[in-house]
């Protein structure tokens, strides 16, 4: 939360002594603002709360005239049904697929992107600018437009419905963002530190691994988590590339599960949604402070 | 948001404690091994060329071919010039889908930016506790995967047992019980707008809030002393300071909202009329993988790529200028 919760420096009240009506108006204003803040919080958080609440209620209580606003008849039955129940689309294989694909994607993308980020930050060479421009442009090509040819190319390579195939697509998908972000992190480590280490007798490699790399570790972790979230949530390409029931990832599983529960077992669907969302939300909360304030960099006139 | 679909290069690390952003000069030219940087780039470039470059070339070629089910099973695909494009551009349904996508995009971008700005302005005036509260709420909305968010909102808007119908009935006294939100296309898109905006506002609000904290307080105070109203202060001081953040956020929002897929596709699965509610991404998916018209779908996809790259052009140019590459 650090980046977000830093208080704004208080402004000095330079208008001299305030008249009491004005003070009253200000107090009213701040009460109204606080009320609006609470409303913003409720609107933002309510769907997440409702998902968890419904997932903890027995299904027959989700179908009542007056909704149950808290899990007053608390149960884990829905989770049991999703995890171990005899459903038409089983959860655990999809979880396994999702975990495998995201972990492969993050590992490969981080290594490749790290090497590329080093190249563009620590060296000048012909084509450096073009590479960066290409990264930016590739970032903007929509996967939705590419799905047909991605499908066909993977088909040619016999990679449809394989973890390797989807991971490969995801590596390419998260790579531009990862290169760009890591480039920012590497730029943030002054070269002088490395040079100082080299004066103290380190070789260049030693200086890099002992001085720069430890400083980059938090950035690598945060970037990796962001890549993980992107791959974990990705739906369109997974829908196309992993069409076989046994090769589904979690988002595709959730949708088939939602369509397959004929009498719409909302409690079970919410349990599945919770299982899929909670890891993402937790990871996101951990790394967001490191990643979310960067847009301002260089964007404010000054 | 999803977490913002792909937060893109817009997000880079900045040290929250740094009062000013260091411009990084280009690194010195190193003499150590002229080929090292290129070796470092090989793996990344190889993956991008294989998985993005090559399919992109394939897509272009396919959009000029007669490519249907037969070709997918190995029949030769004859080139047919601009036939696919002529067919797409002459198809009423394509124009309906494109108009729908653009209208949806404009409404959502406008709502996202306006609401994001209001929330950010509010955050600058809240005390610590309430700001933390708002931040936590926004982060929850942002972190929710687009697909689960859609399914959860689908449950909130459920016809029979949705909490939205219950609450509206209680609040307005009008009987909303059993009201279907997804059958009517306009109402369907209203729900989709709620979902997309709900997920997109946090990123905009946080970005603008971070920008607002850098607007010098003295300037605002001087304006206040000179009798500027709060609207004037925003229009004449705050907005010019943050103009380029606004530009970037708007462009990114346009791109994300033009591409919207998971929310629409999943909402249709919960209960929408597909023919009347497809946006361009869903339309491409259905014409190609649904009905096997790969050539037509390919031409449509190329048109979408061209539109989005045209929109991105300004963003890319701006980023490059700023970075002084």
TrEMBL record, chain A:
Transmembrane ranges, per UniProt, are 28-52, 99-119, 131-151, 163-186, 207-232, 266-287
All copies of domain ABC transmembrane type-1, residue ranges: 95-287
Q: Does the keyword Lyase apply?
A: no
The GO cellular component terms are: plasma membrane
- Compartment annotation: Cell membrane
Supply the PANTHER family for this chain.
INNER MEMBRANE ABC TRANSPORTER PERMEASE PROTEIN YCJP, MALTOSE TRANSPORT SYSTEM PERMEASE-RELATED
Region Disordered, as annotated, extends over: 1-23
Record's keyword annotation contains Transcription: no
What does the UniProt keyword field contain?
Cell membrane, Membrane, Transmembrane, Transmembrane helix, Transport
Spell out the family assignment given in the record's similarity comment: Belongs to the binding-protein-dependent transport system permease family.
**Where does the signal sequence lie?**
none
Q: What GO terms describe the biological role, i.e. biological process, of this protein?
A: transmembrane transport
Q: What is this protein called?
A: N,N'-diacetylchitobiose transport system permease protein
Q: Report the Pfam families cross-referenced here.
A: BPD_transp_1
Q: Which PROSITE patterns does this chain map to?
A: ABC_TM1
Q: How does it sit in the membrane?
A: Multi-pass membrane protein
Automatic annotation (TrEMBL), chain B:
Q: Where are the transmembrane segments?
A: 38-57, 101-121, 133-156, 186-212, 233-256, 294-316
Identify this protein by name. N,N'-diacetylchitobiose transport system permease protein
Per UniProt, the keywords (alphabetical) are: Cell membrane, Membrane, Transmembrane, Transmembrane helix, Transport
| CDD domains according to UniProt | TM_PBP2
Annotated family = Belongs to the binding-protein-dependent transport system permease family.
Describe its membrane topology. Answer: Multi-pass membrane protein
UniProt keyword Glycosyltransferase present: no
**UniProt KW Transmembrane helix keyword:** yes
Query: SUPFAM superfamilies, per this entry?
Result: MetI-like (SSF161098)
Lineage per the UniProt record: Bacteria, Bacillati, Actinomycetota, Actinomycetes, Micrococcales
Q: Where in the numbering of this chain does the ABC transmembrane type-1 domain appear?
A: 98-315
Q: Where in the cell is it found?
A: Cell membrane
> Domain of life, per the record?
Bacteria
Gene Ontology terms: biological process: transmembrane transport
The record's GO CC annotations read:
plasma membrane
Species name for this entry?
A: Diaminobutyricimonas aerilata
């Amino acid at each position: 939360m650090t980046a977000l919760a830093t208080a704004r420096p208080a402004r000095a009240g330079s208008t001299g002594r305030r008249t009491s009506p004005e003070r009253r108006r200000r107090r009213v204003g701040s009460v109204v603002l606080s009320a609006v803040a609470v409303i913003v919080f409720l609107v933002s958080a309510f769907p997440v709360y409702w998902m968890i609440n419904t997932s903890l209620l027995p299904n027959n209580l989700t179908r009542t005239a007056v909704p149950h606003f808290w899990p007053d008849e608390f149960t884990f039955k829905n989770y049991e049904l999703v995890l171990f129940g005899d459903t038409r689309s089983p959860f655990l294989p999809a979880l396994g697929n999702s975990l495998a694909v995201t972990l492969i994607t993050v590992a490969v993308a981080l290594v490749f992107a790290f090497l590329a980020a080093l190249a563009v930050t620590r060296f000048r060479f012909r084509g450096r600018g073009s590479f960066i421009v290409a990264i930016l442009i590739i970032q903007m090509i929509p996967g939705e437009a590419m799905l047909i040819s991605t499908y066909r190319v993977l088909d040619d390579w016999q990679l449809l419905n394989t973890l390797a195939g989807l991971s490969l697509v995801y590596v390419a998908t998260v790579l531009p963002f990862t290169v760009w972000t890591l480039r920012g992190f590497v730029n943030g480590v002054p070269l002088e530190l490395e040079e100082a280490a080299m004066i103290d007798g380190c070789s260049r490699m030693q200086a890099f691994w002992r001085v720069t790399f430890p400083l980059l570790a938090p950035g690598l972790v945060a970037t990796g988590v962001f890549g993980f979230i992107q791959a974990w949530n990705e739906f369109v390409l997974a829908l196309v590339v992993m069409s076989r029931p046994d090769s589904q990832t979690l988002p595709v599983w959730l949708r088939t599960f939602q369509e397959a529960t004929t009498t719409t077992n909302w409690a079970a669907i919410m349990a599945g949604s919770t299982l899929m969302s909670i890891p993402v939300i937790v990871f996101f909360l951990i790394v967001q402070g490191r990643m979310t304030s960067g847009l301002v960099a260089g964007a404010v006139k000054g | 948001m999803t977490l913002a679909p792909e937060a893109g290069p817009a997000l880079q690390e900045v040290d929250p404690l740094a009062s000013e952003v260091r411009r990084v000069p280009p690194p010195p030219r190193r003499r150590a091994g002229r080929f090292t940087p290129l070796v470092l780039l090989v793996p990344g470039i190889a993956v991008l060329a294989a998985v993005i470059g090559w399919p992109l070339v394939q897509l272009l070629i396919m959009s000029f071919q007669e490519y249907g089910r037969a070709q997918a099973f190995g029949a030769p695909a004859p080139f047919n010039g601009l036939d696919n494009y002529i067919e797409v551009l002459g198809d009423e349904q394509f124009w309906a889908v494109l108009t729908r996508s653009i209208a949806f995009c404009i409404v959502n971008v406008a709502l996202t930016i306006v609401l994001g700005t209001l929330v950010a302005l509010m955050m600058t005036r809240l005390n610590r506790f309430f700001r933390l509260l708002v931040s936590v709420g926004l982060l929850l909305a942002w972190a929710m995967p687009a697909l689960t968010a859609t399914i959860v909102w689908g449950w909130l808007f459920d016809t029979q047992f949705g909490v939205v119908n219950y609450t509206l009935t209680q609040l307005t006294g009008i009987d909303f019980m059993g009201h279907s939100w997804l059958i009517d296309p306009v109402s369907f898109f209203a729900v989709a707008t709620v979902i997309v905006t709900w997920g997109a506002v946090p990123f905009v609000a946080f970005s603008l809030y971070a920008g607002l904290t850098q607007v010098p307080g003295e300037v605002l105070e001087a304006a206040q002393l000179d009798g500027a109203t709060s609207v004037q202060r925003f229009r004449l001081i705050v907005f010019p300071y943050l103009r380029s953040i606004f530009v970037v956020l708007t462009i990114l929002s346009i791109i994300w909202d033009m591409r919207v897929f998971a929310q629409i596709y999943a909402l249709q699965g919960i209960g929408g009329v597909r023919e009347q509610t497809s946006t361009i991404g869903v339309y491409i998916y259905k014409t190609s993988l649904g009905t096997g018209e790969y050539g037509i779908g390919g031409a449509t996809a190329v048109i979408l790529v061209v539109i989005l790259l045209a929109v991105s052009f300004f963003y890319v140019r701006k980023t490059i200028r700023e970075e002084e590459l």
